[in-house]
Specification:
The complex is a heterodimer of chains A (about 240) and B (about 140). Helix content of chain A is about 65%, strand content about 0%. By secondary structure, chain A is mostly helical. Chain A has one domain: Cytochrome c oxidase, subunit III, four-helix bundle (Four Helix Bundle (Hemerythrin (Met), subunit A), Up-down Bundle), CATH 1.20.120.80. Chain B folds into two domains: about 80 residues; about 35 residues. Chain B is elongated. The chains are: A mainly alpha (about 240), B mainly alpha (about 140).
């Protein structure tokens, strides 16, 4: 790629203001998506914006995780199983005693696997392998859908146990945290399906666009790594 | 123009060392094994819960770092992107550690005891002797 934009290879127009147009990554530039961009930072503005967004998302999820930690054991965090049968019916339990760890572990493996398939989708986009790109994008979206389905099932089973959003402070904090994450996964699936749909159209998603969607998807995965450990596993 | 060329060469240097497909599979397998180990702590005896919490936090940090470094390409991408993300991450950790500390999380809500209802504060001791009489002030 250095040869493409070397001083000697640019005509006068490109040297004055058309350098961006002169930049055309060749087929040998497998990782052209990471290569230099003609901005002040040398990074594409879209990618920088996504990283800034992800940095700010750390603060959002940090707040939600902290809120859950603060309220999970506070006075008022008692849950009475089968509360639907009557006010304060059943034996008192903590919210964490209702977690189905084997089930949530499978969901975690599914989301982790979706991160790996997303990596191969980004690579396929960079290598201009359209059929593989479709395969990996579809697989990532499907795995994400399985994860969201698992979360819906988990929420449903909790509600049947009498664990509603407004049951107490700990349930509100739990549903807000995991629900926000679920919404992020759902938005990611929509982005993936949009990229997938664009592969069937004349105006295709650029490799960089797929990479940016991939960054968002991996971020959703790393946030789940934190939630799974802090909320579900730490005794 | 020279600066553009120099920038591009810098980026090409940063692009060196991209993992191969096989290496991505290895990272994925490593993450799966770590997740399996994490899940196994659920069946550890209660006496090992404190140790399990430490092990879980270490594995969580390793998994987070592996996904960010390899899958999100932070290890191979521009240092500016690394700084942007780390700024948000470190700010979040510092801010919420301060919040949890100010809310006495480490000594109250973080304990393993079930604190609902909260432990009642002990009543002050009952006085056994009557308080000393105060002489009435003189005057009319």
């Amino acid at each position: 790629m250095a040869e493409v934009i070397a001083v000697g290879d640019l005509d006068d127009t490109a040297q004055v203001g058309g350098a961006a147009e002169a930049h055309t990554p060749g087929p040998e530039d497998e990782f052209g998506i990471h290569a230099g961009h003609h901005t002040n930072t040398g990074i594409s503005n879209e990618k920088l914006a996504m990283w800034l967004f992800l940095g700010s998302e750390c603060l959002l999820f940090g707040g939600l995780i902290s809120t859950y930690l603060l309220y999970k054991n506070r006075p008022g965090a008692l849950l009475f199983k089968d509360a639907a049968k009557g006010a304060r019916a059943g034996s008192p339990v903590r919210i964490s005693e209702l977690f189905d760890i084997p089930f949530t572990s499978v969901s975690s493996f599914v989301l982790l696997a979706s991160s790996l398939t997303m990596v191969f989708a980004v690579l396929a986009a960079a290598r201009n392998q359209e059929s593989r790109l479709r395969l990996w994008l579809g697989a990532t979206a499907a795995l994400g859908a399985v994860f969201v389905g698992g979360q819906v099932y988990e929420f449903t089973s909790f509600v049947k146990e009498g664990l509603g959003y407004t049951s107490n402070v700990s349930t509100s904090a739990f549903y807000t945290l995991t629900g926000f994450h679920g919404v992020h996964v759902t938005l990611g699936i929509i982005m993936l399906l949009t990229c997938l749909a664009m592969t069937f159209r004349a105006r295709k998603a650029s490799p960089e666009a797929v990479e940016i969607v991939g960054l968002y998807w991996h971020f959703v995965d790393v946030i789940w790594i934190l939630i799974f450990t802090i909320v579900y596993l730490i005794p | 123009m020279t600066s553009i060329t120099a920038d591009s060469e810098t980026h090409l240097e940063e692009d060196h060392g991209h993992p191969s497909d096989a290496e991505y599979w290895k990272v994925g397998l490593f993450l799966a094994v770590l997740t399996g180990l994490e899940v196994s702590t659920y069946w550890w005896p209660k006496s090992a819960h404190r140790f399990a919490a430490v092990v879980l936090i270490i594995m969580m940090v390793i998994k987070f770092g592996a996904v960010a470094a390899y899958f999100m390409h932070l290890k191979f991408d521009s240092a500016a992107l690394r700084r942007v993300f780390m700024l948000g991450l470190i700010s979040a950790v510092a801010l919420y550690m301060a919040v949890l500390t100010s809310m006495t999380y480490w000594t109250d809500s973080g304990n393993a005891e079930f604190v609902d209802p909260p432990h009642a504060k002990p009543l002050p001791p009952t006085p056994t002797e009557p308080p000393p009489s105060i002489p009435a002030a003189g005057g009319h």
